[in-house]
Amino acid sequence: MPEASPRGTYRVIAEALRNEIEEGESIGTLPSEAELMRSYGVARNTIRRALKMLEADGVVEPAPGVGWRVVRGGGDRRSLAERMTDVIAEDSLSVGDPYPSEAKLCERFNASRTAVRRVLAQMEGNGLLATVHGKGRTVRALPTPTVRP
Length: 149
Known about the structure:
The protein is mainly α. The protein has helices at residues 9-22, 33-40, 44-56, 80-90, 102-109, 113-125, and strands at residues 60-63, 67-70, 129-132, 136-139. A hairpin with a 3-residue loop joins β3 and β4.
């Protein structure tokens, strides 16, 4: 990448990879991190941040010994963040109710603990969840409904 982006270089790379995947250019597994580094002219950490962003959105998943695999189908194209936010309504949770544990969320969404933790941090930052020491996470506020096409 010739110059730094005000949005964050890793975000620009994540969007470029997302577009390639949506257009069908990347099917199966992504190029290696080393190939992506050469292709975009950035450091490994920048590539990893982009890949972690795509993982949190449910676009790719780590495949030990292979690299990163494109997540296909399953019928649910919503991001992990959207699906985890929807748990509040789907499980009829109210303010003050306990939110499911990391382990249960990993199993429910077939996601890595890293991706789940990243979304939980976002949900806490957005004021939806609160962490209570020794008790786990609780619902702090109800999400505003969104209209999906």
